[in-house]
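Researcher: Good morning. I'm working through a list of sequences from a screen, and I'd like to move beyond sequence-only analysis. For each chain I'm collecting a predicted structure so we can compare shapes side by side. This is the next one on the list. No need for commentary yet; just the structure.
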Amino acid sequence: HVQLVESGGGSVQAGGSLRLSCATSGYTYSSYCMGWLRQAPGKEREGVATIYIGSTKRMYADSVKGRFTISRDSRKNTMYLQMNSLKPEDTAMYYCAADLRGDRCSLVAQNFGYWGQGTQVTVS
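Model: Good morning. Structure tokens for this chain:
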């Protein structure tokens, strides 16, 4: 079955950096969407960045453009989110997610059918 396992969260001071990892297993598709989404206390879950596997297409929320970079190592079946210049407003639970339907890739949380357990990022 599909498994997504995040790691790399933690606490960091404003202006610092973190790299999140998402190890994936349980499926083999050539084209599908993967993303990082986050949810802060009292707020709705929001898309941060997506990558369309099988192409070079990437998408970022306006709030993280120029600071966050999404990437994937196909040999390791692992997706990453490099987060630089972190701000207190980036504090949230970060989730790795996959949309395996293969015909779309967006930041809309409802499109993702598979989720990891989440990893906490706290910026002070």
